[in-house]
Amino acid sequence: MTGEQEASTSVPWTDDAFWAATRQPIEDASAMPAACYADQSFFDLENEKVFETAWVCVGTANELNAPGQVLVRKLGTRSVLLMRTEAGELRGFYNSCRHRGTELFANDCTAGATLRCPYHRWGYDRDGVLNTTPLFEEVAINDFDPADFSLHPVRTAQWGCLLFACADPNTVELDEWFGDLTERVANYQLENWSTRLEVDLEMNANWKLISENYQEYYHVPWIHPELAKVSRVADHYRFQGPGMYCGQTTTPITESTRDDWTVMPKAVTLNEGEEVSGRFLALFPNVLLSLLPNHAFVLRLEPLGTGKTREHCTWLLPPGNEKISDEDFAATRDFWLDINNEDIDIVERNQRGISQGGYTPGRLSPRFEEPLHRFYNMLADHMTDTVRVPTGDTDALPAYGEGTNPHPWTKN
Ligand code: FES
Ligand SMILES: [Fe+2]
User: Fold this and answer.
1) Is the peptide bond before 398 cis (omega within 30 degrees of 0)?
2) How far is the CA of 42 from the centre of ligand 2 (A)?
3) How far apart are the first and last CA of the chain?
4) CATH class of 1-52+193-412
5) Confidence of residue 252 (pLDDT cuts 50, 70, 90)
């Protein structure tokens, strides 16, 4: 291959130079280039550098409530299984039989105490230990110890109401990954919240555009005119400490013009500020977590291609709200579906405009788009193998909100 040919086939995504404009302080920084959203080789490398190294959200804890439940999920190109032992401990394994590698499960399912490979029926217990090999030892082979052929484990952790998995043994523990966020949302006691509704949607947009759109409220007055009546631009504040997340808070969340937030009782564990605030958190890389006083709305993003993403939407309610009637839940359900539909239209249009030629990166608004800048830098860190947990805002909250925030986050 000639040098010229090499240049035409090499990709710059891991070079610092590719990220230089994005890496500038926000007052000087540019948005990300089109390739980040529309180039197949970028998408492939992103799977490896981000989704196969990060703590990736793979579901809600409620999805493992049914006895024997097994979840089949993707970490980049890798397929992993999640389950609980009889004692309730979370386990994760690669979805590959230790005999000759067959995929153990194609879809979420329930299984007994023994996980059976469909090919030659080797079986594993819920700790991944090989415990049955039908007919295999009728003719002995040398040095075969079933203990050497347990399923390969993958790291898993539950964080509040969410399940995470990580394919990289060198990534920091989940507590360090999320920094101060665990403490910030501790009062919600999300591990006790239960799923009310799940809806899956497919969007014709790159997963990052969905996250970016969620992270900025710049678009609210024009894309969500109804929302803008109750979620005023001036009531938004940054909500970021050290950790792999970008956050904002809206406080107060509403006045009396709509009853969406008030029909269902609030969680009883919240402090005064939390009772009148919404927390809107983009956990890097793939989950958008909206915490309201009486419900949570989770968007888990599953990248399917450069311009295609599956959104797993889950509504969760705090303890005591399980018996809320469908009628009383409907306002909250429809509120999010309406907002999400408005976002889908504009984000798909964003994807088309980036992909159809003529796009060069624009500039960012420090007031509205600082979380995106933080997110871009997390992505750049991963693509250039310089991952670090970002520090948070060091200035006094609120940094970019207008006026005095009546309900800032405090540790008390
Ligand atoms: S490949 Fe699984 S038992 Fe043979
Ligand atoms: Fe929006």
Assistant:
1) yes
2) 26
3) 64
4) alpha beta
5) confident
> Contact 34/209 with Cβ under 8 angstroms?
no
- Taking the CA of 217 as reference, the closest ligand is 2
**Which ligand 1 atom lies nearest to the CA of residue 120?**
3
**Closest C-alpha to 73, from 98, 50, 103:** 103
* Secondary structure of residue 168 in the 3-state scheme: coil
Which tokens go with 398?
């609120």
Which among 171, 215, 4 is positioned nearest to 75, based on CA atoms?
A: 171
Maximum CA extent, the chain:
79
Closest ligand 1 atom to Cα of 97: 2
Residue 248 in tokens: 């904002």
Question: Would you give the distance in Å from CA 353 to the centre of its chain?
Answer: 25
Dist. CA 321–CA 306, nearest whole Å: 39
Q: Where do the domains of the chain lie?
A: 1-52+193-412, 56-157
**Span 56-157 CATH architecture:** 3-layer Sandwich (2.102)
Query: Alpha-carbon distance 203 to 318, whole Å?
Result: 29
Mean pLDDT of 373-386: 96
Assigned token pair, 3: 């040098």
Confirm whether pTM is higher than 0.85.
yes
- Give residue-wise pLDDT tens across range 210-243: 999 999 999 999 999 888 877 788 888 888 889 9
Q: What is the DSSP letter of 153?
A: B
